[in-house]
Specification:
The protein is of the alpha/beta class and 340 residues long. It has helices at 4-11, 24-34, 48-58, 74-81, 96-101, 103-123, 143-161, 184-193, 212-225, 241-252, 278-281, 318-327; strands at residues 15-19, 40-45, 64-68, 86-89, 128-134, 168-174, 176-178, 198-200, 206-211, 231-234, 238-240, 260-262, 284-286, 290-293. The strands form 3 sheets. A 9-stranded mixed sheet has the order 3-2-1-4-5-6-10-14-13, with helices on both faces. Helix 3 links the parallel strand 2 and strand 3. Helix 10 crosses helix 12 (318-327). The longest helix is centred in the first third of the chain and has 21 residues, at 103-123. The radius of gyration is 20 Å and the shape is globular.
Amino acid sequence: MPHAQSYCDTFRGKTILVTGGTGSIGREIVQQVLACEPAAVRILSRNENNQFAMWQQLQHHPNVRFLLGDIRDKDRLVRAVEGVQVVFHAAALKHVPLCEYNPFEAVKTNVLGTQHLIEAALDHDVERLIAINTDKSVSPINTMGATKLLAEKLVAAATLYKGPHPTICANVRFGNVIGSNGSVLPLFVEQTRRGGPLTVTDAGMVRFFMTIPQAVSLVLDAAVQAQGGETFILKMPVMRVMDLARAVLDLLAPGMDIPIVTTGIRPGEKLHEELMTPEEALVAEEADQMYIVRPWGVPGATGTPVPLSTQQLPPMTIPEIREYLVRHRLIEPVRTVRVA
């Protein structure tokens, strides 16, 4: 991925809006773009407590603005986007079971909120809008994935109907962001510290994983490279969730007999996730660390077969997962003390 300096060339002196800016991904985007000397960074979210906590961390930055608001409220977005050159759209309802039980709430945020943001960005001639999405939007079987698929389509379609507006809109598609708020790794760590058990929904559950810095590097790279309508997808390792649980126990509770129990697949969950559909693979370009799905009708496919799902890649072994967790500073392993 590009050196940080190339990111800064894009963001220096610009006014940037980050929706969902107090979440795991939003916070990291804010931190990285602040290093690029932007004119201002506006952090929009609806969580007052998270806003206050983030303000305490960043109050020494005179160019940071905290905006309380919900992307469901178009009027709020219209004001938030005024004078902005770059928008990173990280606000979403992302928890699969909650979206299954509250489907229209997911529609209001993930679909209507995204359309509100697109319209506000076009009306204000924003230069770039990069929307953050999920691999659950590929052949979705759950409400969250279906709403995020539609959000992806809205962002891509904006390139077709934007008329004379200069706005470049593109998507990034994430796997599971390991270590983010609400993700499985913090859950396993907390369960281990309580003495267990660790809970896995199904022993056959397999996922693509990426770290928060990797995810944000993909977002910033997309902002630099986007020409309109693309979906950027990071090449990610595959892990069995059961093996991730075992690796956590090896690092944090070596020698302890902490059980791992299966609780059953939750509503809307898949055993395997997919990076892209076979149809998208026809127009996908393979780059060094990512795939780029071009808009339909745009040349760019290399003809090289690409892995479409977690079933087509070998999962990491438990020792490899342990090394990954330590190398990326996701877990500090417990040091055992030998008694002479």
